[in-house]
Structures are given as structure tokens and as C-alpha cells.
Automatic annotation (TrEMBL):
InterPro entries: ATPase_AFG1-like, P-loop_NTPase
Domain of life: Bacteria
BP-aspect Gene Ontology terms: cell division
Name of the gene: zapE
Source species: Devosia algicola
Protein name (database record): Cell division protein ZapE
Length: 383
């Protein structure tokens, strides 16, 4: 059960944002989501109180005020990521970061490998985890991790040491997951060694189930045609209509997604969806890892103005093939406008065979069966 919130229902920052969306019809009010919003209100209030310390020196030299985070779990499409994003956007903590769990762990492993590479020649036997955690603690008080799921023994054995140090230094964790903490790394190798982390996680977060009654992600696409064929105002109008349906009419804003130390510009994003022109994704120097990051950052992607490919667009065609492969593997919902019918997209002999597979996947991605499926759990580290 979720504890009684410190603020009255509807008074908190997250609850207010949620109520605004339901009042304008962008969301259907759901009791489970309201309860989760109130839990996040409590955390936001406590973060605000911890910021209101008497002086800069007090904040600098005193131990951080303890704030218990949240671990929200439930089936896909129930609004976990939406609520966390609402919380992140209003949380009164300047040192905050929101990142996919597997991307975060990727960064930890890269940091450890780099430390060991530098430490070996000089005989440094310091703890690599402590070295990697140090800059995180300096830059981050609130850590929001989406899709917390433990796949492999490497992460399983690292998490205890990692989060012991993060929690001890006042980092507040807000996480979403499809499984309860006790279900993490289920049936994994040497799972008994992982169980202390589960207890640590439960001690430092409020564990809350989100048994929302409806799969809101699927409902966006019921009865919708996700592709527009042709160019000009008519195709753009079809895409605008689909975008309004997907986002509930919520105002979209530019954002960015971090990938290998770079920022991928996202022209429009709202409610877990992103909208790009074809040139944004396929006529810029993006690669597989970039597309994997995008596939994990958004559950829905709309692409305007996909052209017919020819020999002069070979690089763009190859990027488009990679993009669709990664969106398909993840189960991301796709909306797009195409200059020509899908079967006529690929006219280049060098990519004709690969385009045959891409065309098949595009057709499948527009089917009711695909649109009804959940996202697939494909970690970025495996790409």
C-alpha cells in the first residue's frame, strides 16, 4: 500500500499536473494513477523541504536530509513512465537526472572499465565503484530510472555495491518497473547473492503497485491508420491528427536524448511520444546505438516525409533500415508519412534486398496485432 501523502490530494505538483491533463481530456482519471501521483507529491514536498535549509554552508557541509524514494511497478501501458516524467518535470531538485535503467548501467560499466584501464599502469587498487559513483553523487540528488529490470549476473552482482554508496550519500531513487522488487532477477544465476540488494532497495524506496485498469498505450491506436501515403498538406494533416491522438493534445516541446556522450535533438516530444522529420533521423550521422537509445526513450515515434529512396540516398536508406529494425525489435509504435506506397520505397539495387525485409516489417508495424503488443524488453547493452 502507498502511505498517506504529506500533502492533500490534488495539492501536490504531480497531482496538479495529472488533474490538468484529465480535465482537458488528455487522460482518463484512474484511481491507481491518482494514488501514485500522491506518493510522488510526497517525495516532491520532501525534496522541497530539504532544499529550504538555512544557508548554503549548511547545505554544503551537513549530511543530506533523508528522503525516501519510490519504486513503482505494474503492467505495461499503465502510466508508470508518464507519472515519473510528470514528477521529474516538476521536482524541486536542480540536481536531477532521468535515464533508462540499462543506459545508466551501461555508463557505470564503461566508467569502471575506464578506471581499471587507467589504474592498472600506476598500480592503483582503489575501489572502481567508488570512483565511478563519486561524480554521480556530485551531480545528482534525484535519480529517476525508467524500466528497472535486471537481466544478467554482471548487473546483479554490481547493484548492491553501487546503490549502497548512492543511498549512503543521499541520492533519492524514483524507479519504474514491470516487476516488483522481489521479482527482479528471478531464477537468475546465484540469485541468493542478489537478495541483499532487493532488501536495500525496499528499505530506501516506497514500493507501490500500479494496478491501473486500462492499457492506455494500446488505446491510443485503436482503430487508427498509422501511415499516410503521399506528400503535401493532406499527408501532414493526417499526421497532425495522429499526433493529437497519441499525445492527447498535450503541448509538445523539444527535448534531447543522450547517446554516447552526445545529445540527439528531438524536435517534438510529449506523453512518451516523439515526432521527427525524416531528415532529423536519417540524414544526420546517427547509428545503431543512437536508434536504440531513441527506441528506449519513447514508446511511440512519428516520422514525417519519408521519401522514395534512390542511388543518391543510399546512406539515408541504410539509416532508415537500421532505424526500423531497432524500433521493430523494441516494439515501438510507429506513425509515418511516405511519399510513395511502402512497396515502392526502395529503388536502389544496393539496398533492395534489405528493403524487402524493411517493407515487411513496416506492414507488420501497422497491423492491429503489432499495435496491441507491449514493448519488448531489449536492453541497450545488448545492441
Amino acid at each position: 500500500m502507498i502511505p498517506e501523502p504529506l500533502s492533500s490530494p490534488g495539492d501536490g505538483l504531480v497531482s496538479a499536473a495529472y488533474s490538468a491533463l484529465t480535465e482537458r481530456g488528455a487522460l482518463h482519471s484512474d484511481p491507481a494513477q491518482i494514488e501514485a501521483a500522491q506518493l510522488l507529491d510526497t517525495i516532491a514536498l520532501q525534496l522541497a523541504e530539504s532544499q529550504a535549509r538555512p544557508s548554503f554552508l549548511a547545505r554544503l557541509f551537513e549530511a543530506p536530509v533523508s528522503v525516501k524514494g519510490a519504486y513503482i511497478y505494474g503492467d505495461v501501458g499503465r502510466g508508470k513512465t508518464m507519472l515519473m516524467d510528470m514528477f521529474f518535470s516538476v521536482a524541486p531538485e536542480p540536481r536531477r537526472r532521468r535515464v533508462h535503467f540499462h543506459q545508466f548501467m551501461d555508463e557505470i560499466h564503461v566508467g569502471i572499465a575506464q578506471f581499471r584501464k587507467k589504474a592498472k599502469p600506476r598500480g592503483d587498487d582503489s575501489d572502481p565503484v567508488a570512483a565511478v559513483v563519486k561524480p554521480i553523487i556530485k551531480a545528482t540528488r534525484l535519480l529517476c530510472l525508467d524500466e528497472f529490470h535486471v537481466h544478467d549476473i554482471t548487473n546483479a552482482m554490481l547493484l548492491q555495491r553501487l546503490f549502497e554508496q548512492l543511498f549512503a550519500n543521499g541520492v533519492v531513487l524514483v524507479a519504474t518497473s514491470n516487476v516488483a522488487p522481489d521479482g527482479l532477477y528471478k531464477d537468475g544465476l546465484n540469485r541468493h547473492l542478489f537478495l541483499p540488494f532487493v532488501e536495500l532497495l525496499k528499505a530506501n524506496t516506497t514500493v507501490a503497485a500500479l494496478p491501473a485498469a486500462r492499457d492506455y498505450r494500446r488505446e491510443k491506436f485503436v482503430g487508427q491508420k498509422v501511415y499516410a501515403i503521399g506528400e503535401g498538406d493532406a499527408a501532414r494533416a493526417r499526421m497532425d491528427k495522429l499526433w493529437t491522438r497519441v499525445t492527447g493534445g498535450v503541448e509538445a516541446k523539444p527535448t534531447s536524448v543522450e547517446s554516447l556522450g552526445r545529445q540527439i535533438h528531438v524536435p517534438l516530444a510529449a506523453m512518451g511520444a516523439a515526432r521527427f522529420d525524416f531528415a532529423d533521423l536519417c540524414e544526420k550521422p546517427l547509428g545503431v546505438r543512437d536508434y536504440v537509445r531513441l527506441a528506449h526513450a519513447f514508446d511511440t515515434i512519428l516520422i514525417d516525409d519519408v521519401p522514395q529512396f534512390s542511388r543518391v540516398r543510399t546512406d539515408a536508406a541504410k539509416r532508415f533500415i537500421l532505424l526500423i529494425d531497432n524500433l521493430y525489435d523494441r516494439g515501438v509504435k510507429l506513425g509515418a508519412s511516405f511519399a510513395v506506397p511502402i512497396e515502392a520505397l526502395g529503388q536502389d539495387d544496393k539496398t533492395r534486398f534489405e528493403f524487402a525485409r524493411t517493407a515487411s516489417r513496416l506492414m507488420e508495424m501497422s497491423s492491429d496485432e503489432y499495435l496491441a503488443q507491449s514493448l519488448r524488453d531489449t536492453p541497450p547493452s545488448e545492441a
